[in-house]
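Quick one:
INPUT:
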């Protein structure tokens, strides 16, 4: 005969209020956290008072659209030909300014490749602009 008690005791951890506790901790940390702006180095950026008008013969335009097509002075080119074309232009006119204009949604890898090609031919006078003239929804 078995005269001992046969009650089975299971251990149980109440988890019904676990979500409430996690939510309260999240709110506590959000309220008490101090967001500090990175100060970095104090830099005073130059301001342009009046824009200078440049002779069109001194400017060469490079356009990159959102699908990666590259155009130099309204001629479609491939990346491998940029160094040759720009090298010729710079040797003809050492004061040449390159106006580098890209679509807002252009692939940065293509932009980087074009910049590397410009560095190869020492095209150091470069003006960057990310707004191609035309309507924002225009397809190229």
């Amino acid at each position: 005969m078995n005269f001992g008690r046969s009650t089975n005791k299971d251990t149980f951890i109440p988890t019904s209020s676990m979500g409430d506790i996690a939510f309260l901790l999240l709110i506590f940390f959000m309220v008490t956290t101090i967001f500090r702006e990175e100060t970095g180095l104090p830099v005073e950026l130059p301001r342009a008072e009046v824009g200078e008008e440049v002779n069109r013969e001194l400017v060469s335009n490079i356009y990159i659209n959102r699908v990666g097509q590259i155009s130099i002075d309204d001629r479609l080119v491939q990346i491998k030909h940029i160094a040759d074309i720009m090298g010729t232009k710079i040797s003809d006119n050492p004061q040449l300014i390159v106006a580098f204009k890209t679509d807002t949604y252009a692939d940065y890898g293509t932009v980087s490749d074009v910049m590397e090609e410009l560095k190869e031919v020492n095209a150091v006078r470069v003006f960057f602009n990310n707004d191609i003239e035309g309507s924002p929804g225009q397809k190229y």
